Amino acid sequence: MNPRSKSERPLKERLREAVREEILASAERVFGERGLQGAKMEEIALGAGVSVGTLYNHFEDREALLGALMDERRAEIRARLDEVLEQTRAESFRDQLTQFLSVYLDHFGRHRAFFTMLVDDELRSGRGRMRGQTALKEITARHGLLVERGLEQGALRKEDATLYPALLVGFLKGFFTYAVQDEAQAISPTLVEAMVRTFLEGAGARK
Question: 31: domain range?
Answer without folding.
Answer: 1-59
